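note to self — DONT lose this again. spent like an hour looking for the file last time. sequence + predicted structure for the chain T wanted, 254 res
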Amino acid sequence: MTLAHDVAGNGPAVLLLHSSVCDRRMWDPQWPTLLDAGYQVIRCDFRGFGETPVPDRPYAEAQDVHDLLDSLRVDRVALVGASFGGRVGLEVAARWPDRVTRLALLCAGMPGHVPGPELRDFGRQEDELLEAGDVAGAVELNVRTWLGPEADEATRNRVREMQRHAFEVQLAATEEVPPLDLGEPDLGKITAPCLALSGRYDLPDFRQIAARLPTLLPDARHLELPWAGHLPSLERPAETTALILDFLGETRPA
């Protein structure tokens, strides 16, 4: 199955990987700017998000991304990943290092990371609300947790819409399909330069991951955004897009 996706433009390829709080619509603010900058821009919905249905057989997000790139005949790509999308981006870059030119991570997760107490508590609260049938309450929990103080009401409503849709799609599934076990990826195989952004108002897990990545990868740097929560590309779109463009352009082919 091919992930639902959009592709437009010409030039070096950039693939945008969304957070599990959102879907590919989270990249609406970045889409036109990246196109105007001369990139071929691709964005996709993971399984059970946006327009991609829930899986009907064992699957792996990293393999899905690899297969999407193959179907589009994209050999080399810069990956921009937010949260869960950043975790998938790290795995893709580790499993197929020759395919990834740059890696921009926005408050990313990391393969093998053991959740800390705050993240475990969030998961417990979300599970309790969903098990009680309180989808609206679970949506509001996500909005409160993942958006920082810079997010305006329009942005909060956008996240509400995407998160609610994801819950509705996933809760409607008649059976739970296990992920495909590809084994733990070796992050030491990543060769792409990496920019790891974190937000001052994010949960400690994601701040710690971003700070740790320069110790794990051969060419990585960490930048903490003093104004950001967990979704900086939505909280301050113009500023975050400028950071992404600057990073992508550092080794842009002539």
